[in-house]
Amino acid sequence: MTTSAIELTGDGRHGTGAPVVSFGNVNKSYGSVHAVRELDFQLFPGETVALLGPNGAGKSSTLDLLLGLRNADSGTVEVFGTSPQQAIVRGKVGAMLQSGGLMEDVTVREIVRLACDLHPRAYPAEQVMETAGITEIADRMVNKLSGGQEQRVRFALATAGPNELIVLDEPTTGMDVTVRQAFWGAMREQAQAGRTVLFATHYLEEADAIADRVIVLHRGRVLADGSAAEIKAKAGARRIVFDLEGHIDERTLRGLPCLAAVEVSGRTVRIQSHDADATVHALYGLGLYPRNLEVAGLGLEQAFIAITDAATAEEGGDR
């Protein structure tokens, strides 16, 4: 099966108006490594989009191409109908990268003011710091910040003006729970103002809770593109959790019909099944009596693993 067989959408269009970002049959290689292959998708105004994929899926290369840090070998990358570099010069794009981009021998206030001075349509620096929640550390040297504080400063730099596209690479790394909640609250406000937010993350619970659209990359191609609910539904499995008393014969459990996966932890059994009704019926048919039985759809993380593992298996495993 090819990757197109498990895509969730036809034309990838999820928003209205002219596309903010367009990737058209984009290819990018580094020597013999194909980082991006025939990549096609569009982003639209007001969308909050999570970019997911296992290591080596092409997420970083995609963001580099989008931000004009790399050039495609073939195909087209357009941002607001022009090149990424031109869109950035016009003050339409703000980026928050996972590392780098911070001068050390300056205060937080100084680096934010510099970003505002350079932005063609900047907000007042004090407003930017307040929005990013860094007013209380404004006089601290950048090289004295914690990892979470550095991320909040990067957020301030990405929102120094009314950027219509905000690109975030692992934005909440190092942030505690309270700061994460405040950060995503600010991002919701950006989306409600009509701006497009694209973020790459390994925190799949964030993608599930925040994004109204999820793009899954696999080996440089779009493997799935849809809402989190669509991706969970299309994973084709449901989650069954229950407790068993006495000896648990894992071999017997693995003989149940329609299984995708089985995990036994102490007295608790966790199953992924392509037909939960058939699996539970067979479970009782074996004379087993599960307690605290729960049947639910897969979470986004489980669905993500299921569809990427299935794609890898169909393509012949690792190469």
UniProtKB/TrEMBL annotation:
Keyword Transport among record annotations: yes
Keyword annotations of the record: Antibiotic resistance, ATP-binding, Nucleotide-binding, Transport
Record Pfam families: ABC_tran
CDD domains, per the entry: ABC_DR_subfamily_A
Highest taxon listed in the record's lineage: Bacteria
Record keyword Hydrolase present: no
One Gene Ontology term of the molecular function aspect: ATP binding
Cell compartment(s), UniProt: Cell membrane
Membrane topology summary: Peripheral membrane protein
Domain ABC transporter: 21-244
Full protein name: Sulfate ABC transporter ATP-binding protein
Organism from which the protein derives: Streptomyces varsoviensis
